[in-house]
Amino acid sequence: MRVLVVGGGAIGMLSAQRLAEAGLEVRLLDQGPLGQESSWAGGGIVSPLYPWRYSPAVTALAHWSQDFYPALGERLRHETGIDPEVHVTGLYWLDLEDEAEALAWAAREKRPLEAVDIGSVHQAVPALGPGFSRALFMSGVANVRNPRLLASLHAALLRMPNVVLEESRAATGFVREGGRIVGVSTPSGDLRADRVVVAAGAWSGKLLATLGLELPVKPMKGQMILYKCAEDFLPRMVMADGRYAIPRRDGHILVGSTLEDVGFDKTPTEDALASLKASAEALLPALAGAEVVKHWAGLRPGSPEGIPYIGPVPGCEGLWLNCGHFRNGLVLAPASCQLFADLLLEREPIIDPAPYAPAGRIG
Ligand SMILES: Cc1cc2nc3c(=O)[nH]c(=O)nc-3n(C[C@H](O)[C@H](O)[C@H](O)COP(=O)(O)OP(=O)(O)OC[C@H]3O[C@@H](n4cnc5c(N)ncnc54)[C@H](O)[C@@H]3O)c2cc1C
């Protein structure tokens, strides 16, 4: 079977790898360079930001992925020499409004979330700012160095003889034969395949619109800033008021993020820079004296309730989706791509695929 994957972010590349491992001929197409859009721009927290606020559908994918991430990181490092740096730090949520709901969810889901004394947070994170009074801690939460995850996936795909990677080639529409999708059109000619997979992130809705289908996936801009500190400056991830600080192993600290509904514009703005710096300094006052070494924006694939679309498109035989992961595409990637491959290859799926089925969710 020949499969064409449109989109080379974390979702497209990991889907391609899962299918190629099963022996399929895979061609992966990206309109730009591979792995430079949302999957590059994200923070890489291997958890939804407030996991208890999501539906069981998101939780099921998140939990499967969280368990799988350390092995994925190790395997990619071993295969390619590029370490995605799955960094287990745990995560503190400060002054939450819905602590009771969070703790009830954790008890139900058997996740290690506990209320802790604020003094113990200051001990664990000496750089934490004043003014916080309550905290929840979840041990075991990791972050992944997503640009390295992508570089590593790219390198792994390059080593597979049954994978063809094409950068700077956009799918501009689909090739149809009767009710069947048999390929995509591109500015340099049509490409044919037995299955076409749309893993085009924030652009997925736009691409489906060429078939007259309304897929509610749209860009939601997020901006982020980066600092470089001493390696031991921030031993845990911390989060308050929707903003978070993520430590990489080498002392880089990411602070994010904004959530903006402004279409496909991903220009970083001065307003966001000022607002992110204010959040960074409230969390970690020492950052007031530190230089922002990078500031960028990415386009999340926004979807209703953040529930991705995984599976075949009804009425368009041959067309499949793996997109719409919104704020959680990095944490959800391993489970989403495994589930996707299970469905396409007609294997027993890792989890119930019903909540993610495109059927009934596309206009
Ligand atoms: C600031 C920010 C912080 C985030 N933090 C986190 C986090 O901490 N944890 C987490 O789990 N998630 C996080 N996310 C969300 C996560 O980054 C996304 O959900 C995820 O990266 C989506 O992956 P994707 O592969 O679907 O999309 P992308 O990475 O955007 O990849 C889509 C690819 O498709 C290509 N493409 C699009 N249209 C076409 C076409 N017509 N033809 C060919 N190629 C095409 C694009 O060029 C792109 O490379 C964050 C996102 C942002 C922006």
TrEMBL record:
Annotated keywords: Oxidoreductase, Thiamine biosynthesis
Stretches assigned to the FAD dependent oxidoreductase domain: 2-343
Domain of life: Bacteria
Keyword match Oxidoreductase: yes
One GO molecular-function entry: flavin adenine dinucleotide binding
Cellular component, GO, one term: cytoplasm
Annotated metabolic or biological route of this protein: Cofactor biosynthesis; thiamine diphosphate biosynthesis
Any Pfam family hit: DAO
Gene Ontology biological process: thiamine biosynthetic process; thiamine diphosphate biosynthetic process
Protein name, UniProt field: FAD-dependent glycine oxidase
Lineage: Bacteria, Pseudomonadati, Pseudomonadota, Gammaproteobacteria, Pseudomonadales
